Fold this sequence. Notes:
EC 5.3.1.1; gluconeogenesis; TIM_sf; isomerase; glycolysis; 8-stranded parallel beta barrel; binds 2-phosphoglycolic acid; 9 helices
Amino acid sequence: MKHFLLIANWKSNPQSLENACMLARALEREVKKIRGVEIVIAPPYPFLVPVRRELKKAKLGAQDSFWTGGPYTGDISPEQLATLGVKYVIIGHSERRIYHGETDSLINKKMKAVLEAGMSSILCVGERERIGRDIPAIVGEQIRGALREIPPRLYRNICIAYEPVWAISTTPGAVPDTPENSFRASMYIRRVLADMAGKKNSGSVRILYGGSVSQMNIGSFVRDGGVGGALVGSASLNRKTFGEIIRIASRAR
Ligand code: PGA
């Protein structure tokens, strides 16, 4: 069985290099004590190298990548990230879809490029508003769009994070999803993947949950959420809280 995967998505935090290194050091100390959980720390771009220096057991992640290098002012290529030691790249986070207008076709290019560069990608999908009990069709559309023409041999390096926007802690009125709904989303995602690439390839994709994950709910997501990992935003910026999340996840397996 693969280890439970916990991704710390720092977003655009913290604001100083000193605080980023301090946080990375503190999280690494927590990670060192624990077994059975794989931890990825995804700091903002300028802190990738200094944070990497603080990490031994935890792996380095990036929060996005452009799809190529060259005449693209301000963009970062997958090759550049790979050369820094980045192992996982978050693609298609709702904040990028909403604030930067990222489309499924751009996300598809990024996914291909990240995978071809030898890194794992964490594709974020999820509906904006909570509607009824069924997983909305938009989730399937986002997956089909993002994985278009990706060779099934690369599926084992894909993670899909179900992150309903209404559950992300910074969305006004956010509430965490329930493990039951996360389980339904995970089954739904598996069906979409199996339709696209067959049961065997789809089985190698890791499915994660994200949205207000905390020390209060991580245990129930590990046990009943039908997922192999979690994407953690706000709670990953606090050493004690994240340390507790790691400990609970490793015990709940
Ligand atoms: P949250 O963020 O844990 O603060 O809800 C998750 C995310 O947006 O990736």
